[in-house]
Each structure stands twice: as structure tokens, then as C-alpha cells.
Fold:
Amino acid sequence: MAPSQDPLYAGLGQAVRIATDLLAALIVGGGLGWVCDVYLFDSTPWGMIGGLVLGLVAGMRNAYRSVQRWTNP
Structure:
């Protein structure tokens, strides 16, 4: 099936990709923070909070970079 040239679908696909990248970064950051809490430092809940914050920062950075590539071909 050929890709659609409709700008609505292109924009929707880009939005879904950015949302998925952000969600994945949050899940990975939260998971790493949880692992640090439970197995390494016993610092509940600060490791998970720190991991979520770092995941949010990483996800926002990835989203910003994706938007920059999309608007400037």
C-alpha cells in the first residue's frame, strides 16, 4: 500500500510518533528510577521521581528534535 500524500495523515503520523517517543521516555525513566529505588539505594520514592523527571526531559528533547526535523526538511 502506497503512503498517503494527504497532509492531515502526515501530521497525524508525526503527532503519534512524538507522543509515542514521549511516553516511551517516561516509561523507561520511571522504570530505571524504580529499579534504583528497589534494588540499589532504597530511597523510595525519590528514585522514581527523579527517573520520571529525567524521562520527561529526554522525551521533550526528542520531541523538539523531531519537530525541528519535520519543519526544516
